[in-house]
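Archive record:
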Amino acid sequence: MSENFWLVLAIVLYFGLMVAIGFYSWRKTAKYDDYVLGDRGLNPLVAGLSAGASDMSGWLLMGLPGALFVSGFSELWIVVGLFIGTWANWKWVAPRLRSYTEVASNSITLPSFFENRTHDASRVLRVVSALIIIFFFTFYVSSGMVSGGRYYESTFGGNYTTGMLIVGSITVLYTFVGGFLAVSYTDVVQGALMFLALVIVPVMALVALDNPGDIFSWATNHAYGPWPEGNPDYFNMVAGVSLATVVGNVAWGLGYFGQPHIITRFMALRSPAEAKQARRTGMVWVLICYLGAVFTALVATVYFSQKSARVTDQAGFETVFLDLARLMFPPLIAGVILTAVLAAIMSTMSSQLLITSSALIEDLYRIANKQPSQRVLLLASRAMVVAVALVAMLMALNPSDTILGLVGFAWAGFGAAFGPVVVASLYWRRLTAPGAIAGMVVGAVTVFVWGSVPALADTIYEIVPGVAFATIAMVLVSLLTKPKSGVVEEFDRAVAVTDYAVSHPESTFSEALRNHGGVSNV
């Protein structure tokens, strides 16, 4: 049988498993809150793996190895920033956000939390938040569609558009059917696949080299990829990069505080006390995955040179992981390994589709139609999953940027628009609704303008000025306005609930709420 038969078999089995999980989750999704947030019943193991898998996307197995392969260790500053950001997000945001979202009128989306946190009766803050989510997630989902198309090209030598449509359609199907639980459960399977693949591929490629020790010197003085005479500065993290580039790359870590598809997992935890266990699971997973991606790039610089093999993507070299797996393993095993890339792509897309659908329904449609039935809300949410996916597919038909470029733009947008407001919501009593609105708008506009003007984009990654200007605007406007009645008292109650829940992990979260005044109805 042909190589493609075994590759297709592995991928079809994977698709079947994802759809089966979707229908299993559908049976547990009886009401709208289940579809959006899983009724806050996520255990820490699932939360830790789900947050990591939904975070990384095709960037981890395609964008990052490709960037390291082309540019060398100067790209590692992104990894440093993201690793620190992951830890800080779990440590400081997760426990308080879990408590506060329930204390503040049981908020099930980030825009509804912002509104309830500031007691904004105008609905402007909620609508602005939802529009930002819809705008930037459309780009983010589009990056996943691009990854799916390029995956299909590299693996089967097939048509980009066909691959994009297949991957996108399967992702839409299980998200459409099972909602948040389907997304979270599939994330666990997908996270495990990514983990195993990022361990197995670089290790086996290393064994296949004439001299494994070459990985620490080959790139500096031998031809590979885009370097006909080698790259003498390959292992130098600072050579050829400015201070602004280093700061910009490390600043990727700032983006974590504002990513709705990641911090939604915090909101879905059973208790704030379980954030600690989830953090440990997530940090081990992400550390080993990063190391696997780095070693994949390192080994690839030697492998493709010594074996006279060719990287399929000769522009961004974002298929080095795919090509290594396909060249080294028998077709069926290669197919199983290559599903890890699909897992990375689909886990992120499904989370983003669900969050965007929630923004459209919970934060736009529902505020205009106050008493829709549970059936109407579920149907509308599922319809929006399909609608957003179709728009993203249209955008991905003719991609004008690399996967890393698309992800970087959306990441900066959320990091600047939401990051400062999320942190201030949890740690600053004085935050007001006008301040939050000002911070979001300034952050989003700064990223859009900065990233669209080459003269500015070439100086520093747009998340840096975006977060800086957003923070200034948020603080200044908040100081010029006053918090609504009850905001400070509710803030103190949320902090007390968090402290009690974390210091009494044996207690249920309901007990923590009862001991500190219950849920606000404002």
